[in-house]
């Protein structure tokens, strides 16, 4: 503090003056004014509503806290029974909806989650979902194959095409579950697509927990899921373009637009992003973060406008986003992990709201459809790639371990079937059936692996080591899929 | 890859078998099924709506991309004219609302931001706002004073009480701008409160840019703004409790509840959080992040239910959140910086939607009120603390530099006046007037400092050094206030 020389005397006296000017005087002014205007207190008492009711904002915040707590509780319970966390989080979302909570306590559910609040929560879910899909896109393009290319490609195509074929075959018998007005071809292909999905992030998490992410089987399963899912998303995009039932000319225009957008994103835009992220202009990294969100949401809106689903656009940005630059990678992992932890539970909640598992008449046909689709999903994913792996020289045991790993469908499957439901392809009953297929195939992965002698506890030191590996392939930041 | 010995011959032949099983066969199945069901393509064409219309999700994503782009553009333009970024972002929010965009192109505004989409965007704004307030709470409690305690406290109280007193005095003449049914005392105190706010984060940013954050004036201004704003929020809480017009008994119950909550959060809960964050149970940090969001939203709902504003609860969690543990600090900065960059622009947008600056009849009374409040706001913040600083031994020039610094109100002021508007204290006209006061006082800080010989370019090396210091006091992650 700069002080004037010889000002010590003054200094001792001045605090009181300063207190008077800065404290007592203004307080006196406030007190006099308050006394002047406070004569009519009783008048004010009639004004506003009761203080114990929550307004929309308050309800929204309460619902936010509840949904996040329930999701985390579900995740912890799932880990406790040696299941991927996402299985518990999805179940928590279903439990908060009409399937359980709304059935047991409909009044409480209406009070906690009124219609006006559901819209606010939906905003969080939508943002979380496009950021999740951005993360899926990053993972698909981030895979690098080391050695055994022919074998890996053969296994990848089998892991996608075999369940796809079984799904389309089954779908012919399930045409009753298509929504009105949708073309049978779109429906049949969609069901095939739904069975062919593997959840890359859940798979990476399981491999890390088992300590086998660095083994040939681990690497192969990750590669196969990335290639297979890439193919499934392409087919899904084609189905959506067709399912909207435009004229052939409209379809052609939309298809060409989609092609042009894809080429632009993977060519010039990708090069621009790489170049831009190298310049180092963005000192605090916030511009990169905002650019990412703007690109993801803007592209999502763009693809939605040409008849593809918005999530395809978000996926495309993930594929195009630079991988080599530290700032770009940090921004992406920052947003994807925040979205996975804090925003995706609202998607599970919204999903649970649309799905009343109990209200569906679970008659013999539905149960048969569930049993059939579940069997085909498991057989297609386990036998198809397993057989091909065996035929290309892998011993039986790792070959079928691979198949079991590729059977985890997780969250990615949920996203796919919700897209199909929203696009008017599958009806509410098939949505419920495929939700159960997704949950059951994900939940059965760990127990089935135990049958092959693989248990999380059997390789604790490996697991710690290999979690670094998971970071390298870009999956360390999220355990969802 | 484990291979059986002598299996080389087989290996060369088998790929074709594998290709047949995993690729050709399933493709053939899919092709046959597709051909079977695709006879009735024309039927499907009548089903769904046109492919070029965006549904609500598409509109939401488009609006998200637009709002974030506009905010970033505003921020860049503001920095270009040597203003804090937040001034540009607020202006961008106002420009997208009925004040500018809605006036120039009402049809385009309706199409881009339909009512259904505004609700979705509002969810993002609400979450951003509570996380911002959490950050404000952290900063208030993170201040440590080094030396000159008496002087610092005297300046702090003057920086809060002098503009407060001037605001209450002016408010007596402005009772016409109170909402119907609100008590005059609440209104008068609220206007005082609104003038007494300083924006801590904007202040820290300006100090860093000027390279004076380590000087006595820099430290003193930060301390004074933290203490002063703490006091202002306490008074605001009391006003809100009273303004809702409950019965005296209800007020007493709510007041006791607020006291109990505060004591619980700053005592047992704070100790629990510190202890919990030390255990290291949360390996990937996501549990800490979810815990933070649940605490912030849950507490916000709790304080809203006892008649205080939800943002007071979010502030309280910020004060109670542990500061010493790395994981807790990382989670907090992660979320606060994401909220500041990606979510707060939606608050500015929502704020801009409620405020039509042009539709207010800017007659002589409104302009007089604006001029008067603006003058009192500046005089109170500059003269009050400046005089007290001078009286406690500081030379004239740094004393008034301090006053000018404390005059930046920024985003914090916007939050306060929106609370007052929502709580039914001030009307729409005074909301507009105080918004302009907030913008003008923030924007005038840099030019006024130039008058005192302080320019960002005059100390470039200092500025680089002192940005570390800004991190130390916990303000490096956000430049908003």
From TrEMBL, chains A, B:
Keyword Ion transport: yes
UniProt keywords, alphabetically: Ion transport, Membrane, Transmembrane, Transmembrane helix, Transport
Lineage summary: Bacteria, Bacillati, Actinomycetota, Actinomycetes, Kitasatosporales
Membrane topology: Multi-pass membrane protein
Location of region: Disordered: 456-481
PANTHER family: CATION/H + ANTIPORTER, K(+)_H(+) ANTIPORTER 1
Transmembrane segments: 16-37, 57-74, 158-178, 184-208, 220-243, 249-268, 289-322, 334-355, 367-388, 400-421, 430-452
Tree of life domain: Bacteria
Identification of the protein by name: Cation:proton antiporter
Location in the cell: Membrane
Matching Pfam families: Na_H_Exchanger (PF00999)
Coiled coil: none
Cation/H+ exchanger transmembrane domain location: 71-449
Principal subcellular localization: membrane
InterPro entries found in the cross-reference section: Cation/H_exchanger_TM (IPR006153), CPA2_transporter (IPR050794), Na+/solute_symporter_sf (IPR038770)
């Amino acid at each position: 503090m700069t002080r004037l020389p010889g000002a010590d005397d003054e200094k001792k006296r001045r605090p009181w003056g300063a207190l008077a000017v800065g404290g007592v005087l203004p307080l006196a002014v406030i007190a006099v004014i308050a006394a002047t205007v406070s004569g009519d207190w009783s008048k004010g008492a009639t004004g506003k509503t009761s203080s114990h009711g929550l307004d929309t904002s308050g309800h929204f915040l309460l619902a936010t806290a509840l949904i996040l707590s329930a999701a985390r509780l579900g995740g912890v319970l799932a880990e406790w029974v040696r299941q991927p966390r996402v299985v518990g989080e999805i179940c928590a979302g279903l439990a908060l909806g009409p399937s359980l909570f709304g059935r047991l306590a409909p009044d409480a559910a209406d009070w906690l989650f009124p219609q006006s609040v559901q819209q606010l929560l939906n905003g969080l879910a939508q943002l979380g979902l496009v950021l999740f899909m951005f993360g899926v896109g990053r993972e698909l393009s981030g895979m690098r194959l080391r050695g055994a290319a022919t074998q890996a490609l053969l296994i990848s195509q089998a892991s996608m095409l075999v369940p796809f074929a079984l799904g389309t075959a089954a779908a012919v018998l399930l045409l009753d579950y298509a929504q009105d007005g949708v073309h049978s071809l779109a429906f049949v292909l969609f069901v095939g697509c739904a069975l062919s999905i593997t959840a890359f992030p859940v798979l990476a998490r399981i491999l890390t927990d088992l300590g086998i992410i660095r083994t040939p089987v681990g690497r192969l399963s990750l590669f196969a899921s990335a290639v297979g899912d890439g193919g499934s998303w392409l087919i899904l995009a084609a189905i959506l373009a067709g399912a909207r039932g435009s004229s052939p000319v409209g379809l052609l225009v939309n298809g060409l637009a989609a092609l042009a957008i894809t080429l632009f994103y993977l060519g010039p835009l990708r090069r621009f992003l790489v170049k831009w992220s190298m310049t180092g202009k963005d000192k605090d990294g916030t511009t990169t973060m905002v650019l990412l969100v703007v690109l993801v949401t803007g592209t999502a809106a763009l693809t939605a406008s040409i008849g593809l689903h918005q999530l395809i656009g978000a996926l495309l940005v993930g594929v195009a986003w630079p991988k080599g630059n530290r700032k770009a990678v940090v921004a992406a992992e920052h947003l994807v992990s925040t979205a996975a932890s804090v925003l995706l539970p609202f998607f599970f909640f919204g999903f649970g709201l649309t799905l009343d598992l109990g209200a569906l008449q679970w008659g013999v046909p539905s149960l048969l459809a569930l049993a059939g689709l579940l069997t085909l999903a498991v057989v297609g994913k386990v036998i198809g790639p397993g057989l091909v792996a065996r035929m290309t020289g892998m011993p039986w045991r790792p070959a079928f371990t691979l198949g079991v790993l590729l059977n985890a469908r997780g969250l990615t499957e949920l996203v796919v079937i919700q897209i199909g439901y929203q696009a008017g392809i599958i009806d509410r009953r098939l949505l419920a059936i495929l939700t159960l297929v997704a949950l059951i195939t994900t939940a059965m992965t760990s127990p089935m692996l135990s049958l092959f002698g693989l248990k999380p506890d059997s390789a604790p030191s490996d697991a710690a080591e290999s979690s670094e590996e998971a970071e390298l392939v870009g999956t360390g930041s999220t355990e969802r899929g």
